[in-house]
Amino acid sequence: MSAAAEPFSFDPGNEVHARTLARLDSEQVGWFGTIGRDGFPHAVPVWFLWRDGKALIMSEPATAKVRNLRANERVLLHLEAGADGEQLTVLRGTAAISSEPSSAWVDRIEEAYTAKYDAWLQRLNLTTKTMADRYSALIEVTPHKLIAW
Known about the structure:
Blueprint: H1 15-26, E1 30-35, E2 41-46, E3 49-51, E4 54-59, H2 64-71, E5 74-79, E6 89-97, H3 102-123, H4 128-134, E7 137-148
Antiparallel strand pairs: 1-2, 1-5, 3-4, 4-7, 5-6, 6-7
């Protein structure tokens, strides 16, 4: 997969695609997979915001996932299997670290991010703005393939 690969186009009329879009808007935790320095997969739970066909993930800049992305853009975002264990959702694609820090994105994402994560942010004594300051690397995930049923 290269950066020239076409982004995946969701068809809201397709039942699986529609369910995936709804889950991307509502699910709070996804598993983000990168390729580690040793060539093995590296997966971590992340908060993400689905916006304009991309998953946006704020990260501390010195993490393994950021380091891995600098070496290899291939990623996946995997959601849990749903309450019935039958709703597999995996997005395979590429990711890039935004040239703008997370704090530069706050005006664009604060309302949606706060709506999605406010209870968790409060428990951590954070706001979307203070989260963006601390988790200053913004990862943009572009899906190229959906694996779901």
